[in-house]
Amino acid sequence: MYSSYTAASFARIWDLADQHKVNIEGALTWAFTFEDQPWFAGYRQLATNGIDLPVLNVFRLFAQLGDTRIAARSSGQIPLAAMMEAGVRSAPDIGTIATTTADGKLAILIWYYHDDDLAGPDAAIRVNLAGLGRGKSRQLTEWPVDESHANAFSAWKAMGSPQSPDAAQYAVLEKASQLAPVGPARSVAVSGGRANLEVTLRRQGVSLLVLDRPGN
Predict the structure, then answer these.
(1) pLDDT score for 48
(2) What torsion do the CA atoms of 54, 59, 65, 69 make, to the nearest 10 degrees?
(3) pLDDT surpassing 80 at residue 181
């Protein structure tokens, strides 16, 4: 939940900066480390007993965004004013931000957040892209952080929530915590500078879609 909350809230920081004409050059997150504490104790940490938490992987997704923010709109994204007044209660916040780099790489961050950390259906998302320029294809790589990807907490619960993991369990948790793409990059057809993607996003999930030119 904290990982999707972080994605949704950091995106609103940019919205607030645009609204108030503030130039943001960087952001700081307060995170703490407490020794000899229970696993996944929830003390606003980025790691627990040396194992990365999902929220740290969301910051790694942010680090892959490009230098230039470009226009991106989601029909499921809650307006800034409504979120500030009432939070995310009646409907989930399914939002996006997009960036590009000087060499034409496109990075799209999407998230599926709700204040209530309850089970719910996946979100079937259709991404419509325009302005891709010349070329007949792009290479798509998807980097998810959700219940089943880059999530040591889910792995820890699946093994019975041990408070003293043995060496084999620790290795499993370490591997489960690692951010990794979903398979190899796949080709996406481009026609007239436009392309369409179909993406499934888990509730409280975050994903980065990176589209690169073939050969890069």
Answers:
(1) 93
(2) 110
(3) yes
